[in-house]
Amino acid sequence: MEPLIDPSPRNVLPLHPHHHHQQQQQQQQQHQQQQQQQQQQQQQQQQQQHHNHHPHQQHHQQHQHQQQQHQQQQQHHHHQQHHHQQQQQQQHHYHHHQQQQQHHNHQQQQQQQQHQQQL
Known about the structure:
Elements: H1 2-5, H2 7-53, H3 57-77, H4 81-94, H5 96-104, H6 106-118
Helix pairs in contact: 2-4, 2-5, 2-6, 3-4, 3-5, 4-5
């Protein structure tokens, strides 16, 4: 009779942590949105400078922005949102022009962010 009680609590234990894992995923999603907002603020300042410098380069950045938007959608599908976001930040630092262009399509990015919250 004693061995029967052993498996019973053991079965309940895995169920408890599984529930906790779901909560952690939601927290990560909220964190990602906060990081995105911070990046957008930085882009605002950089975009103004770029607009006065090379207005022609905007056309080239627009093409890159579409690719980035695709990455955001993929992030929501995968649970590695935090990991993917880090890569995007590095890209912004490396590609200065990409940063400026993102602000240009600020409205488009906000729409996607709202979609993630709904999901």
